[in-house]
Amino acid sequence: MEPVFRRKRNGALLLADTDEARAVLSEQRQKHYEKALPAAKVREIAVKAVLKKNGDIDNRKHLLGQFTLQFGRFRNTTFQWLLSNALGYAAYLVVSLEKDKPSEDARWLNKMALQKYLKLFPEGEEAVVMKRKERITTIPAKVVRDELSDTDDHELLDIVEKMEHDAEGDTAEANEMCVSFKFFYTKHFINPIFKNKAVHILDISKFV
After folding, report:
1. How far apart are CA 108 and CA 21, in angstroms?
2. Which residues are bridge partners to 13 per DSSP?
3. Which of 36, 103, 137, 188 is most buried per CB count within 10 Å?
4. Containing structural domain, residue 93
5. Which of these three, 82, 108, 134, is where a domain ends?
């Protein structure tokens, strides 16, 4: 019940998504926006999953491994699966947590749980160090449109995920950001993965 970490031939930790992760990502594009589950509910589901797998709920690696991600491109996948199939993205989320303000928000608590799980493994710590070194300061969601053209895909996804979060608390404000973002989206070429993500978020108003 632990993740399988992959390495390159030279021994370097492999952060790239697996084929399975890319397949899941393709499926996620077709799914509608969902609000994050409360932390207590995520834990309850994890406990049931651990018991079903004959695991030990007192083992943090077992329990946290069955927590599910409540936001983002791999929403609803377990932490164990995420570290096995999209370690780079998991490490990216943990690094991005360093700039977040503490809160009782379900997404923030979910990120904290992921951080705790990732740091239970030496490979997880190694991945965070690697991501921290390549990290470019994330541009806030409310940005000047012209600045977006120099933003990489991970930063763009950060913006969209922030828009998801804002939609939970203030639909009108989120819709305004979506309109601004759509202006940029229609003017510039973006990675196909992000294009689909952008379209998905721009339709949020249908589901909140």
Report:
1. 23
2. 7
3. 36
4. 19-134
5. 134
